[in-house]
Amino acid sequence: MLKPIGEMTVLVTGASGGIGAAIAERFARVGMNVVIHYMKSHEAANEAARRCMEQGSGKVMTVSADLRSREQIGRMREKLESHGLMPDILVNNAGISHYGMLADVTEEIWDEVMAINLKGTFMCTQEMMPHMISQRYGRIINVSSIWGLSGASCEVLYSTTKGGLNAFTKALAKELAPSGVTVNAVAPGAVQTSMLDHLDQNELKMLEEEIPAGRLAQPDEISSLVYFLALPESGYINGQIISPNGGWLT
User: Fold this and answer.
1) Cα–Cα–Cα angle for 142, 225, 128, nearest 5°?
2) Is residue 123 part of a domain?
3) Out of 38, 99, 137, 158, which one is annotated catalytic?
């Protein structure tokens, strides 16, 4: 029997700030159990957890793991199992950006971004999906990027990881559909978060002028879409890459 929303658990990776924290808070507001993953931002994760507890009635846990490490992801899974908080919903949000010419990308930088943005999603999903398969219900939602759809000059590496994430989403959706588990991706356009801190005010203004909506997205606008995809009634939406981008890419 399908659990009520208030008894479900969501794991949001990279949830100490920005889009991840907004997603965690959105689920907390409906009383869901929320697990906030972070790697190093302990204080920010605790602050996100505090806001979740203020807004919801479910359990809230913070958990640290380096998603480049299979061992640490395994320990995170064991901790969730011991607390009865294995996720019914997994939001793979953790990721890092990289801005620069491809000619300047070293092999070390390439491996680092690939490991966090793509391999980390693969390993975290692989560790968490058996629980969903066993109960024949689950939602896996990957946070991608508009650049995974269109590519971006000076962001070749980042675009490559997000393009790979989109392909991962489509293929895994077909694999898990018979088990009652859906896999979708949300590929936002420009969102007002720290990922845009490398742009100055003039560059931000130019960016806004390129977007038909005339503004950047707010994290809450992305979290609402993620929440919708996680609902039981969204079960026929599967293998989709949905891009909330203000009409920037149509």
Assistant:
1) 35
2) yes
3) 158
Contact 69, 94 (CB under 8 A): no
Residues 6+ apart with CB under 8 A from 178: none
The answer to the question of residue 52 being in a domain is yes
Pick from 160, 166, 158: which is nearest to 195 by CA? 158
Range of the structural domain that residue 92 is part of: 5-242
> What does the pLDDT look like over 60-96, one tens digit per residue?
999 999 999 999 999 999 999 999 999 999 999 999 9
- Is residue 248 domain-resident? no
Contact yes or no for 19/223 (Cβ under 8 A)? yes
CATH code (residue 40): 3.40.50.720
Q: Is 158 a catalytic residue?
A: yes
What is the rounded CA–CA span in Å between residue 177 and residue 198? 40
Alpha carbons within 13 angstroms on the beta-carbon side of residue 209 total 6
**249 located within any domain:** no
* Per-residue pLDDT band at 250 (split at 50, 70, 90): confident
* Start-to-end C-alpha separation, the chain: 39
DSSP string, 32-81: -EEEEEESS-HHHHHHHHHHHHHH-SS-EEEEE--TT-HHHHHHHHHHHH
Structural domain total, the chain:
1
Instruction: Return all residues near 119 (Cβ < 8 A) that are at least 6 apart.
Output: 67, 68
Global pTM value:
0.95
